[in-house]
């Protein structure tokens, strides 16, 4: 096994340690670089291979004894030369994972991508720009364990990109916010710190915000198909599957299909971090179980009356809280997590 070759796919100490348990077998490590549904593309020490999931692993996934492989995962695979096939035998423990609630009424968790260092939350500086959607993206991204970064694309089409950036930065807290243009190249140099050799970043956003165009610009070639956005500013799905690309500088990016829905799982910590301003105000409420609705002495509602907190932001918090609240709890989020809030979780890169 040539680990130097694997390093271009992001191989490092955490995965090397996990691999020791499987060393000495006929299996080899690889990273999933594309998910086509019925089969996967693997980045291996000897090149890219197509692979499938055997029946034993499928059964383990159904029982909940194994994670379903996703793009970004490190897996153990076995080449079966006599059969002319390659099969995935196991998924190595994940360092981070980006998840969402599966579309529809189900509460099933769907893992979008794994082993990420960063998540680019992509929105276009057009009529599509929606602060409430970005708050939802921030909640999911913070819960992944990776570093969220907001990218406001198509800055060449905006009449006042700086003003829009300030508006989004006000709700993003400590999350970096960058305005970029894949057409002119404006702002792309500022992304270099997130795309160092071996670092993996996933791009998420609605259709038509320019994810594929941005990746083509970073790659220096037209690897991803792009389409025109319709007159009503609605994007069209171009990316149909998740795929990982190696950039010329050694960074790795994962393109994902546009998301019509981004359901939030029970990501309490992600919600607290995305709305840290509200959580800070809640510490001054008269009642520790304040719901910030009609209770007397509510510091959050007082901030709305004083104009220091927008009512739209509080409404967004309430809506997302209803999504993440678990049935067995009937107390507000800040009551459950206030002790954790005093010592925020440190996030490594």
Walk me through this protein's architecture:
This is Small ribosomal subunit biogenesis GTPase RsgA. Its EC number is 3.6.1.-. Residues 114-260 form the EngC GTPase domain. The protein has 349 residues and is of the alpha/beta class. It folds into three domains: 3-91, Beta Barrel (OB fold (Dihydrolipoamide Acetyltransferase, E2P)), CATH 2.40.50.140; 97-255, Rossmann fold; 268-342, Probable gtpase engc, domain 3 (Ribonucleotide Reductase Protein R1, domain 1). The protein has helices at 3-7, 13-19, 55-63, 131-144, 161-172, 211-219, 268-274, 276-282, 299-306, 311-324, 333-342, and strands spanning 28-35, 40-44, 47-51, 74-80, 85-91, 97-101, 109-114, 118-124, 147-153, 177-179, 200-204, 243-246, 252-255. The relative contact order is 0.11.
Outline the fold blueprint:
Elements: H1 3-7, H2 13-19, E1 28-35, E2 40-44, E3 47-51, H3 55-63, E4 74-80, E5 85-91, E6 97-101, E7 109-114, E8 118-124, H4 131-144, E9 147-153, H5 161-172, E10 177-179, E11 200-204, H6 211-219, E12 243-246, E13 252-255, H7 268-274, H8 276-282, H9 299-306, H10 311-324, H11 333-342
Parallel strand pairs: 8-9, 8-11, 9-10, 11-13
Antiparallel strand pairs: 1-2, 1-4, 2-3, 4-5, 6-7, 12-13
């Amino acid at each position: 096994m040539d680990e130097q070759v694997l390093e271009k796919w992001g191989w490092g100490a955490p995965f090397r340690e996990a691999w020791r348990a499987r060393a000495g077998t006929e299996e080899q490590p690889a990273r999933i670089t594309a998910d086509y549904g019925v089969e996967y593309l693997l980045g291996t020490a000897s090149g890219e291979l197509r692979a499938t999931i055997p029946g034993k692993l499928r059964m383990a996934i159904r029982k909940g004894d194994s994670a379903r492989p996703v793009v970004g995962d490190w897996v153990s695979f076995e080449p079966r030369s006599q059969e002319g096939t390659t099969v995935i035998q196991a998924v190595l423990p994940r360092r981070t994972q980006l998840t969402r609630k599966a579309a529809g009424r189900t509460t099933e968790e769907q893992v979008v991508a794994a082993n990420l260092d960063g998540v680019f939350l992509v929105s276009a500086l057009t009529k599509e720009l929606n602060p409430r959607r970005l708050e939802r993206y921030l909640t999911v991204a913070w819960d992944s364990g990776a570093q969220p970064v907001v990218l406001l694309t198509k800055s060449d089409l905006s009449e006042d990109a700086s003003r829009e950036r300030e508006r989004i930065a006000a709700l993003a807290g400590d999350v970096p916010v960058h305005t970029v243009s894949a057409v002119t190249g404006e702002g792309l140099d500022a992304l270099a710190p997130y795309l160092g050799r071996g670092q993996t970043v996933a791009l998420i956003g609605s259709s038509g915000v320019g994810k594929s165009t941005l990746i083509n610009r970073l790659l220096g070639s037209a690897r991803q198909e792009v389409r025109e956005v319709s007159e009503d500013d609605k994007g069209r799905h171009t990316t149909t599957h998740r795929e990982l690309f190696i950039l010329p500088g050694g960074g790795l990016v994962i393109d994902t299909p546009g998301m019509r829905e981004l359901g939030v799982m029970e990501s309490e910590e992600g919600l607290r971090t995305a709305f840290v301003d509200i959580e800070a105000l809640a510490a001054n409420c008269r009642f520790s179980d304040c719901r910030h609705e009609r209770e007397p002495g509510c510091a959050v509602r007082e901030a709305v009356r004083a104009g220091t907190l927008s009512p739209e932001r509080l409404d967004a918090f309430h809506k997302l809280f209803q999504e993440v609240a678990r049935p067995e709890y009937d107390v507000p989020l800040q009551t459950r997590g206030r002790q954790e809030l005093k010592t925020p979780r440190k996030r490594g890169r």
